[in-house]
Amino acid sequence: CAMCGSDSAPPDQPGNNCLYATGRFCGGICPGGEAVRIEAVRVTGMLDTPPERYFDDITEMMKQVFNTPASHCVLIDPERCWFKSWQGRWCEFEQEASYGGHKVECPREEGWCNYILVPTTAEILIIEDATMDARVSLNSFVVGPPYFRSYVGAPLVGSRGERYGTLCVVDFVPRAFTADQYALIVNFAALAVERIEGNKPLQDKLDETLLNDVWRNRHLDLSLQAAFDGVLMLDMRDSDWPIMYANPAFEDACGLTKRELVGGKFWDLFRQTTKTRTEIGLFAGVGDTFDVLVACSKTGMLFKFRLLPATSDRFAPSKATGLPAWAPFENPARGDLVTPQGRQLVRTSEIVDPVKCFWFAMFLETCEAASSTATSIGTCETLSSSEGSHAFSRSSGTQSSVSSSGYASPHGEYFVPDGLGVPHVGPLIGTGSFGKVYRATDANQCPVALKIVDCRQRDDRALRAQMREVQLSSKMDHPNVVRIFGYETSTNVCGKRTIDIIWMVQELCDLGTLTNASERGLLRQERLHTSPPDMGKVLPTLLDVAGAMEYVHGQLIIHADLTGRNILLATSDQSPRGFVAKVADFGLSRYTHGRGLATQMLGTITHMPPELLRIEDPVLVPESDIWAFGVVAWETFHGKCAYKGKSAPQIVCAVASERALPWPVDAPCEFVSLMQQCLRTEHCKRPSFADVAARLSFLSAARLPSE
């Protein structure tokens, strides 16, 4: 490999006092690996350019909204984290720039922004207290100047899935926020990306066919329209709707200056046409998305704006960014926060409640002079189904100045079926190849997870896989398997197309994935990446998984994609460690009768056994899950992902050449011996989950010391 100098995939590479050596990543999130991502950053034409007001306005807004002393917009190239915009205290990093003035950058291995390159799918990076997070607790910016303590970074996700860098807020004291607040910075990151990708060098780089594919896939992204046609952010706590943010495109579209807009009142600059302000406010009260016709007080021109909550994931659905399940969210029925048991949220009164009152107003079009409003508006125009994910209902009455989508929540792209029993959908948890998962509350005001699968681009094979997950999961009844409370299918209309939607209401596991918990150090003796694992947590957690998989195999089912991201943690009063592990995601599972299945199906390559990776006659057997479990155990013990940042060919080479995952010499011998048996090349020599569970139970009870 030209990037890391390796012919295979060393699984354990610590960085510069950090968990991963991200500067040596060569595989990873982009097809073609890290080299493709770096090239995508280069062709934006943004690196080493002077500051721009567009980005400075965004970072200043984030600094204000999150009430932090610093905010920045960063691009990540091979050697450094380069700051396109920075606000606040950055004197430690400022250097003279070739274009005059100053620039800010830091070595890539020292920057925290690198961690947005680690997850398989785009996720926000949240570090509430750096001294208690193993990923960065020994980082030079934590143990030395400027002594950072908290960080929130939303990935800058490009149109083809590449991650250019981050939009971040930073503080020098521990901080925690809500899921809605995290959703807000995700949407402003989407606005930043639209500007980044609007540069001509990038457009020239894309061939016409690919460019058409990009725009076709992104026709639902309101962020695209907001960046090029204009957007405001409004504070609806005040009945006059103070304007907090305006981008240059909005100024140009409406003929108003930033001085007139930012700090001004929306209803001083614009006046309603036929609907009263109270009537318009009713649409906002339910988190609806709606269009409004208003007249400019200065010019008399009539404009159509689209309003939606600034925290809504409908702003950029094609570039959805996951928020960890442990981030608190509001239960609207009770008005309180849903948080993992025993976890206290550091609430800051200036921002916790207001963030739900921040709304985007996007410029759609100039209609005509306001003097002819009465005759020109007529019956209210509905939101066009070609502009959104639904066929929207027509508003009643004539001469209406508002048209509504009929949403009952700021989150989610589709109407929730009434029979599902989920009256409220909360912020996004995560995304995958088969759908999105949201926080939600059921009819009894209990928190649940809502999985939504959009089948518009699914072939019959993929649809069968999704229905298989529904059918298999709904029949599972084990304390360490995520429960399915109900499911439904529905049909929605998008343009002229009919879309089938699959809905599943699942148990909400409020501590997120085992992978995330391991990386943050929750299963270590101390929250340091150099700290030994806490076997009092590691062994019972793996026993939970082994017990669940013994049950699954007893149902004649092969999971086929057992990874740390498909194992979820939930708080529990019954467990001494305060949580239990539960197996989830049966989308690739197969029924079996004790025999192997010939298959071309792929799971997660880092957890695939030799019998699935071979070129000729790949086969899926129950023992394939045992191999995956061995990899999960290695990751849980080490607190990091195996082969992270390595390419698929490197991983295949490592597995095919029987280069075993290494264990430290002071690891418990019997535990290591068991896991090495799970990772035997010949699947017939691996133990069963019944054997694994029995031996883990013995080890957990005995708590053998390291030998």
TrEMBL record:
PROSITE patterns registered for this protein in UniProt: PAS (PS50112), PROTEIN_KINASE_ATP (PS00107), PROTEIN_KINASE_DOM (PS50011), PROTEIN_KINASE_TYR (PS00109)
Low complexity compositional bias, start-end: 393-405
Superkingdom to which the source organism belongs: Eukaryota
Gene3D superfamilies membership: 3.30.450.40, PAS domain (3.30.450.20), Transferase(Phosphotransferase) domain 1 (1.10.510.10)
Keyword list, A-Z: ATP-binding, Nucleotide-binding
Molecular function as annotated in GO: ATP binding; protein serine/threonine kinase activity
Span list, region Disordered: 386-405
All residue ranges annotated as the Protein kinase domain in the record: 423-699
PAS domain span: 216-263
Listed InterPro entries: GAF-like_dom_sf (IPR029016), Kinase-like_dom_sf (IPR011009), PAS (IPR000014), PAS-like_dom_sf (IPR035965), Prot_kinase_dom (IPR000719), Protein_kinase_ATP_BS (IPR017441), Ser-Thr/Tyr_kinase_cat_dom (IPR001245), Ser/Thr_Kinases-Pseudokinases (IPR051681)
Binding site residues for ATP: K451
Name this polypeptide is given: Non-specific protein-tyrosine kinase
Taxonomic source organism: Zooxanthella nutricula
